[in-house]
Amino acid sequence: MSRQYDHILALLNLLNRLGCHHFFVCPGSRDAPIIHALGQMNKAEMYSQLDERCAGYHALGLAKHLGKPVAVVCTSGTAALNLSPAMAEAFYQNVSIIAITADRPLDALNTFENQTINQSGIFANYVGAELHIELDRKLSQQLKNGLGTKIQEAVFNNKPIHLNIHLSEPLYHFEESGSTNKDMLFSIGPQNELEGGAKEIPEAILTRLRNAKRALIVLGFSAQKEAFQNHGQIVIADVCSANYRNGNIAFADFFIEQMSVHEKEDLMPDVLITSGTYLLSKRLRNWLKKSKPAYHLHIGRAPELKSSYSKDFDVLDWSMSNVLAHLKTNKDYSNKWFALEKKYETIVQNRRSAMKSTFMETLFYLLNQVDQSLLHCGNSMSVRYAALFQSLRRKFDSIICNRGTSGIDGCVSTFLGYGCNTDYRQWLLVGDLSFFYDSNAFWLSALPKKFVIMVINNHLGQIFNVIDGPDQLKDGQSFITSPHPHSVQQIAQMHRITYFKVENLADAKQLNLNASEKVIIEIFDDNPETPEHYKTIYA
């Protein structure tokens, strides 16, 4: 089986040349040849994780941190299916993770062989490339060139990749053929051939930009920071965008729904320019849908994107700075935005000061102790509490959160994957249900050296007591909120992580965060009025 092993080495060398040097490896036998080959490569960093679902999110986190593709390797069967949540999240975040799934030979399908399922198309909706490779057969040079090109294009477009490797037995025969050309078995083209973005802005788009009287720039979720100059325009940046510091309107979420009819007309954009992906603020999304700008231009590499805001819509792969340079400054429009911004900053600060919430005081104190420019967050209420804190304090460069599919699964795993190559302390704010759901994340062999995880334990999914609707279920509400009596303390103890219990501000102020390199703080909130406290700030 030397040909099979040669092809594995060649494939891994291809990934190496495309910048993929980190591999999260899950246990199994079918993937043994891949694991052995990785061990022979000087540039391959390997991390062990027994849970494939967590491993996928570890890869997502590290890929976000590095801005390069990261791979996860698993055995055949349902092991591969467990990568699906992370693949979907990566797809909607535009992050390149590579799922390398071992598989049995094609002729083993439907023969009752162990751990055999049809692994074709299991991530079909969430990948930029899906390749099924039979490594024990002779591959034509044309096929090898085509495989290499597809993988290269998906990496360039920041999309996940599925490499399904059909492996024949013997699996533990690691002999090479001695060929000196295995590095070139899978070829790739020059990078500049892929850089097919617009060489210049089309005249039709330029005309719309130059004629804009009320241009509004909205920077959605993005893991990639972009330096650009603001030419006096109004810029709203999502708190989960790496470009948050480029925004100059932080309180839109507090006044968008409170505006008078006259104010809505004054602030309605005629041209909307966006970048990134999702927006945390549902209020802002809904307002933009109702405003119906005459023209919507999205900046970025997103050919499949559809606009929710305008029928006249274009996607342009161009730099934001070059686009904004073609807009005229409308001081009257800007001043109206800034007037509302200043007014509501005062209102919200006063509401926050008047609030008598032990939980909010405690949480804000702890968030103020974060000694890094980035805060990691789980979804649901965790990221919304962080967004409120960010609006009031503007402490972080950005908040890192899985806002691709916005699920609670994988929040802890993504955080630990992001920091597995760091030696400085990183911080995560996460809810209790998210933490319990993803507690296998700590089986990672290369945990960050230093971290603080703050777990908000209100004994249920509190967001369902904040949003409208779930209260109508009456007796059925418990099936949504999932109430529980548990603490995360035993999980911390099992993984030998220092644990602190916090019930009030005094407890928080007594913490010695330097007592250990790895810390879990469980913040208890049993006050049923907390959701109302939160909602009054946005009233």
Q: What is the third-level CATH name, the topology of the largest domain?
A: Rossmann fold
* Biggest sheet strand line-up: 2-1-3-4-6-5
Q: Structural class, from secondary structure content?
A: alpha/beta
- Specify Rg, calculated over alpha carbons: 25 Å
Specify the biggest β-sheet.
6 strands, parallel
What is the oligomer described by this structure?
single chain
What general form does the structure show?
Answer: globular
Cα distance spanning the termini: 68 Å
Question: How many strand elements?
Answer: 17
For the record, the CATH class of the largest domain is: Alpha Beta
Low-confidence stretches: none
The tally of structural domains comes to 3
pLDDT average, as an integer? 89
Strand content: 15-25%
**Number of distinct helices:** 20
Give me the CATH architecture of the largest domain, please: 3-Layer(aba) Sandwich
Q: Name the helicity range.
A: 25-40%
If you had to describe this structure to a student in words, what would you say it looks like?
The chain is 35% helix and 16% strand. The protein is of the alpha/beta class. Helix 3 (52-66) crosses helix 15 (411-418). Strand 5 (129-134), helix 6 and strand 6 (161-166) form a beta-alpha-beta unit. The protein contains 20 helices and 17 strands.
